[in-house]
Amino acid sequence: MASLRAQTETPSEVIVVDDGSRDGSGAEAEAAGARVLRQRTPQGPAHARNAGAAIAEGDVLVFLDADVELHPQTLQRVRERLESEPGLDGVCGRYDDDPPHRSLVSRYRNLLHAYTHLQAAGRAATFWAGCGALRRAVFAEAGGFDTRFGAPSVEDLELGMRLARDGRRLEIDASIQVKHHKRWTLHSMIKTDVWQRAVPWAHLVMAQRRAPAALNLRWSQRTSVAAVCLAVPALAIHPAASGALLLVHGALNLPLLRHLRATQGIGFAVAAWPLHVLHHLYSGLAIPLAVATYPWRRLSRPERALSEAAR
Description:
Number of strands: 8
Low-confidence stretches: 301-311
Radius of gyration: 20 Å
Order of helices and strands: HEHEHEEHEHEEHHEHHHHH
Mean pLDDT: 91
Structural class: alpha/beta
Number of domains: 2
CATH class of the largest domain: Alpha Beta
Helix content: 40-55%
Distance between the termini: 31 Å
CATH architecture of the largest domain: Alpha-Beta Complex
Strand content: 5-15%
């Protein structure tokens, strides 16, 4: 809220959806000047964002997560992009390269997300609700976020994939930045990446029978996952082959390591590489888990496929 008040361009309205919180967040947001919409019980970010969008009056909807802090010109840059390009239906920003939590895991995980969007800058096939804007008419026509995602997951990616499939023009603009205040632990990183990212995203890919070569589904990242997953059994059979596969992983991810060295120093880049190897290892192991749970996911929602719009 403080970063919203400090914008070079004041938003026409600020809506905070209090999704059944018990920590006084809604009252604090209201005291800070937001219009607060309270939901008695938590229903998830997809439902909350839809509810907030339903009462918004502007012709552009800017979605922000509760743990981001805007740079002073974030909203000004959003307006400039959408005003100067009438054919642009939506634009997303990215995390900056200076996350406030300084533990190795928190810095690595937040910087990995920031780098992924930096590399994907330009035309996008997905949407990011951490800091993303859509024209109101486009959002309404799409039917909003799919509320069957009852917990934080890939509901924004699904909306973006749906919009791209309908021919909507979305872009990632690396100059639109926010600071991510999330604190990660090794446990929370693995749990989130597997159950709230890899598995539901794999379900989306299986439902649509195609995988967009974007973000962490780029071919370099798919090959990285394969290299690490093969390196583990190879260690017992042929250690030299396992080492070679890890070198392949390092070569494929050299641009990321160089970026981390440039922004955080060589010591951090060296320390972050084992975490990146681990990230790709459990992401790869999540694939058979996604395949095994996919029939259950579909059978539990027999009325519609996961890829269909929530209208």
